[in-house]
Design a protein that fits this description.
308 residues, alpha/beta, UDP-N-acetylmuramoyl-L-alanine:D-glutamate ligase, four-stranded mixed β-sheet, 13 strands, 22% strand, binds adenosine-5'-triphosphate
């Protein structure tokens, strides 16, 4: 599949690098402050574009310089931003991250304009949703908009992929009804099913529970252990590539963008698409940052050829 629409969030990520987290009431100095583009939607759109798909992003940014920065970043990676609109008087989404020396982080998100996306915005992009192969969404923009988008896409016979992140307590039944593939990570899956993931057997039980919600195809990503696939035709754990990870931020977003881009329209090559996605993520985790770490299609192809 090579024509992808991503509906979702974009944020500017400001990271305060610190030795240790401050205690309540304490004042400390940062060792560094860095800024980068982020947001699950934007990351997944960039992964799809870098994987060679013709990619559109549907999103709202604020009337500020951050909005211009985000749009510029997306374009620089080849994402079409025709449907990235500006909400007057709103701020662009922003994630404030504190990262300690042990690599742990605290994140506070100001959703800003991400929550201003409306069903009217989708109608403006109606031709796109009706004609593109696949639509991907997450939970960092309004759920009613995602539901409306998936309904339009299914009516047009297109593939819908839901990344239920960040985790929520109850996914609306109507959204599940229009979802072809659900792709949580282990934490999100456990939150939906109530079953903690410890091994292959609990992955299988989680997948079963997700099927019971009415979704035929499930992929649960499981960090450096791989990705569990469960469809009517295949049930397997695609192992992760053994690499020295430097920064796993954006591993899941890379996986989703690459998987969607490489999946056939009849979904007949689930396992193969997951293997390519896994290869792409394994390259991303060896580099710093989310968006800059996502490899290009050529880099992934080369890495796979080198293994043969
Ligand atoms: P994030 O929130 O950090 O973007 P995530 O929790 O959504 O990631 P993960 O399940 O951690 O997603 O990772 C997605 C995929 O990336 C995994 O299924 C695996 O293929 C690959 N991956 C993740 N971590 C590693 C690692 N340390 N080494 C190799 N591959 C990895």
């Amino acid at each position: 599949m090579k024509k992808i629409v991503v509906i979702g969030s974009s944020n500017v990520d400001t990271t305060l690098h610190v030795k240790d987290f401050p205690k309540p009431g304490e004042t400390i100095n940062a060792t560094d402050v860095t800024t980068a583009g982020g947001g699950k939607g934007a990351n997944q759109a960039i992964a799809a574009a870098k994987s060679g798909a013709e990619t559109y992003f549907i999103n709202r940014v604020g009337e500020d310089s951050d909005g211009g920065y985000i749009t510029h970043q997306l374009k620089s990676y080849g994402v079409d931003t025709t449907y990235v609109q500006t909400t007057m008087g709103a701020k662009t989404g922003h994630a404030y991250i504190t990262l300690n020396e042990a690599g742990q982080n605290d994140i506070i998100i100001d959703h800003g304009a991400n929550y201003e996306l409306t069903v009217e915005d989708l109608k403006a992009a109606g031709d796109l949703i009706n004609n593109w192969d696949c639509i991907i969404a997450q939970f960092e923009t309004p759920i009613d908009v995602t539901t409306a988008a998936f309904k339009m896409a299914k009516k047009a016979g297109k593939i819908t992929i839901l990344n239920p992140a960040p985790a929520i307590d109850k996914i609306p039944d109507e959204l599940l009804k229009y979802t072809d593939i659900i792709m949580p990570n282990e934490t999100e899956s456990a939150k939906i099913t109530g079953i903690p993931i410890k091994d292959k057997s609990t992955l299988a039980t989680n997948a079963e529970k997700l099927h019971l919600l009415g979704v035929k195809n499930v992929i649960i990503t499981y960090g450096d252990k791989g990705a569990y696939i469960s469809t009517p035709d295949v049930e397997t754990l695609v192992p992760a590539y053994k690499v020295e990870a430097t920064d796993t931020t954006g591993a899941g977003d890379t996986f989703i963008g690459y998987f969607a881009s490489n999946l056939n329209a009849d979904m007949s090559n689930f396992e193969e698409a997951a293997k390519i996605a896994s290869r792409a993520s394994s390259i991303a985790v060896q580099r710093l940052g989310a968006q800059p770490s996502i490899p290009t299609e050529q880099e992934v192809k080369q890495a796979m050829e080198d293994e043969e």
